[in-house]
Amino acid sequence: RRVLFRSRRGFGVVLLGAALLPAVPAHAQGDYPAKPVLLVICFGAGGGPDVVGRIVADRLSKNLNRQIVVENRPGAAGNIGTVFVLKSPADGYTLLETTNSYNINPFIYRSPGYDPRKDFVPVIELTRAPSVIIVGAKSTLRTVKELIAAARAAPGKLVYGSAGNGSPTNIAMEIFKADAGIDITHVPYKTAAQANQDVMGGQTPLAMAALPPVSGQIRSGLLHAVAMTSDRRWPSFPDVPTVAEAGFPGYSPLTWIGVVAPAGTPAAIVSRLNREISAALADAEVRNRVRDTGAEPVGGSSAEFAAALAAEYEAMAK
Question: Does the structure show a pLDDT above 60 at 97?
Fold first, then answer.
């Protein structure tokens, strides 16, 4: 009886101890990733985030020896995909690739469905690139000066396309319009690819586009690059002038692409993802492929990305 009592008492202590332990994921963090990882791109196929995301995901799959499943969930300037990831388990198996819209949308939409300051943890910044004002190959608008003159000759009659209300390209053009004192009507598209296609086909006179998805068409002559939004000429397109050169010093909105995870994702997993994605960005083939799109690889720590996001949030508020 004494032995049996002790055994039961010991069993009770084991149960009590187990109850007090924190919940352990089905797959231990040390085994991460133990299954495929979903990378949600909150913009449509063919845009800059899609192009860059698939390049990085391909290399990351090899580095982790696990499939990185890329899924596009566009809509509402990124809100739909962002909220989807927010509602996913914070276990490192659902990640969000996003852009400046992440910090812009809270000031554009009454209820974007998330708070960038507390609902996600930054993982890594992938790339930066300028936007570019594009027109069709047959357009007579070849320079910033000609564009401004056309807009002033018929206020509100000239239209431009972008990736949607609140998209980085929309904001970049609105800042330019304010600086130049011109009125150009905005035509928001659901995806950047649709906007760029309509400019190429002549249905829309011009667009403000992220550089990566249109770099090929610019090089082939299907689109004409009027000007870049970088503060100096971009390395991959040294012959294309900047808006700043046209008399707007200080104008330099850039588009970043980065990866975040739902708040509560274990720090060890965030650190592992940062290391592995950094290694992918350091790969010579990946860097060349990214630069071929017109973007520049960034990398860095999750803390550096967090600081950049916080600074941009304050700037967007203003």
Answer: yes
